Amino acid sequence: MRGRYLIKSLSMTAKPDWFERGFPHLWLPYTQMKAAPEPLAAARTRGSRIVLADGRELVDGIASWWTACHGYNHPHIARAVTRQLGVLPHVMMGGIVQEQAATLAKRLADLLPGDLTRVFFSDSGSVAVEVALKMAVQFWLNKGEHKRKKFVTFRGAYHGDTTGAMSVSDLDAGMHRLFQGLLVEQLVADLPRTEESGALFEQFAERHAGELAGIIVEPLAQGAGGMVFHDADVLRRLRKAADKCGALLIFDEIFTGFGRTGAMFACEAANVVPDIITLSKALTGGTLPLAATVARKHVFDAFWSDDPERALMHGPTFMGNALACAAANASLDLFEQEPRLRQAAAISVMLRRELGACRGLPGVKDVRVLGAIGVVELNEIKDIHALRQAFIAEGVFIRPFGSIVYLTPAFTIGEEDLKKLTDTVVKVVKGKQ
Ligand SMILES: Cc1ncc(COP(=O)(O)O)c(C=O)c1O
Question: What is the pTM of this model?
């Protein structure tokens, strides 16, 4: 029922030719295309804004699924990619390595805590998770333990859309329940949020030790499963339980990595070193697809052998793509040269202050902030399309899902644009009653 939300009429300007001709051939993600409003036609991006083909300009509240941490079109990244395009856009990684991938691997190894020092590149977050799962299973095979093939995963988890990644996502809560028959059954648990549940979790993990390859978690913030946060103690309990039962601990930092929760990586805030970590999203500053699965030395050592069958059996065609790695190296330059974590901290303060106005409003279940993630959870969203359109009509791009409205802006967003985002959330949530 569209009338439930404040909707200004959208201008009915003509759509560009490329849209008219091309859109009938596009298949959109997570979208019932018959019922959904037509997508927006984007013409350009700049800073924290998306410029539409009809001239409207939207302040972007979610940085293209949490990737564009430096804002759009950062000239330093653009220059690095352009330079690399003229030198070496891509060579396969089988038998050849190039400077950008090697440099990025070294920089990630230096940035990550402990001996997370061996980097396997791929091209999307889901594939990075697939690689992590295969790495863990083959780690045990290489050690002669052939039964350790299962993973503990947590209620509310989301790790991607490929079959392995879906199997470790929360099938009941998430969008993957349709594929239940296709997927390997994993062990699903609640996050151990208290000392007591930590002890119970340890017992649970130990009971399954013989079949357990690993424990996989999104540290500090479950993202696409509903933007639900937990504290660092949970991660320390998981480390302890993993150590006791011998399972590998996998942190999926595809959402949380690169400053989103306030620290460069969520694992640092918890002072916990996982055995494997997955990275993607903001790795290239939101410009090119790239992901990394990074293993600790003892994990890599289990593959180091005279036996060719002990090699990691994975190899995406575009792994370590030089353009994407050049973008990622440039993105890391920006983290070194510009005050990104301070900017994230300032965003956090403002989100807390401004979104606080939603607390106590009818229909609002919770308001929470972690780092540069601001969430207003509603009791329910009856008409998600109408709510999304209401934001667009107000000049912002915010894309609620489930029962939450959230903001994950670029760290470089100006104060005025951030205020526009928070004011609009408050206004639209108020107008909903
Ligand atoms: C924590 C986490 N893991 C994995 C993925 C999957 O990444 P991709 O969409 O690049 O496959 C996502 C995407 O939202 C994510 O948030």
Answer: 0.96
Q: Count up the domains in the chain and report the number.
A: 2
In a shared domain, residues 235 and 382: no
Q: Indicate if 344 and 327 belong to the same structural domain.
A: no
Q: Which domain holds residue 242?
A: 75-337
Model confidence at 55: pLDDT above 90: yes
Ligand 1 lined by 126 (C-beta under 6 Å): yes
Ligand 1 atom at shortest distance from the alpha carbon of 256: 1
Q: Is the pLDDT of residue 215 over 60?
A: yes
- Looking from the CA of residue 127, the nearest atom of ligand 1 is 11
CA 165–ligand 1 middle distance (angstroms): 9
Could you tell me if the CB of 159 is within 6 A of ligand 1? yes
**Ligand 1 contacts CB of residue 223 (under 6 A):** yes
Is residue 179 very low, low, confident or very high in pLDDT (cuts 50, 70, 90)?
confident
What's the rounded mean pLDDT across residues 282-287?
A: 98
pLDDT exceeds cutoff 50 at 205: yes
423 is catalytic: no
Q: What is the pLDDT of residues 233-275, one digit of tens each?
A: 999 999 999 999 999 999 999 999 999 999 999 999 889 999 9
For residue 129 and ligand 1, the question of a CB distance below 6 A is answered with yes
Catalytic residue among 60, 161, 170, 281: 281
Asked if 171 and 34 sit in the same domain, the reply is no
Q: What is the 3-state secondary structure (H, E, C) of the chain?
A: CHHHCCCCCCCCCCCCHHHHHHHHHCCCCCCCCCCCCCCCCEEEEEECEEEECCCCEEEECCHHHHCCCCCECCHHHHHHHHHHHHHCCCCCCCCCCCHHHHHHHHHHHHHCCCCEEEEEEECCHHHHHHHHHHHHHHHHHHCCCCCCCEEEEECCCCCCCCHHHHHCCCCCCCCCHHHHHHCCCCEEECCCCCHHHHHHHHHHHHHCHHHEEEEEECCCEECCCCCEECCHHHHHHHHHHHHHHCCEEEEECCCCCCCCCCCCCHHHHHCCCCCEEEECHHHHCCCCCCEEEEEEHHHHHCCCCCCHHHCCCCCCCCCCCHHHHHHHHHHHHHHHHCCHHHHHHHHHHHHHHHHHHHCCCCCEEEEEEECCEEEEEECCCCCHHHHHHHHHHCCEECCCECCEEEECCCCCCCHHHHHHHHHHHHHHHHHCC
Catalytic residue among 158, 170, 275, 417: 158
Domain CATH for 149: 3.40.640.10
